[in-house]
Amino acid sequence: MSLNSNRSRLSGLTRELLRSWQETQEVWRDQKGREFDKTYMQPLFESVENAGLAVDDLEKLLKKLRNDCES
Fold it and tell me: Taking the model in full, what pTM does it have?
């Protein structure tokens, strides 16, 4: 599996998790729900976004390495 396909899969799973979390927030509206969101969910979504950016950078680097080795 390529980095891009893994990134796409991670992105899709994260969107699915976000939809489920948003549905949960519709019924879990107390202080503990907000704390859970702030402590766990928001950092998770930020980490996934950062991981996606890192995968993009790695893909660019690997492409450059391949091109350099072929030249």
Answer: 0.82
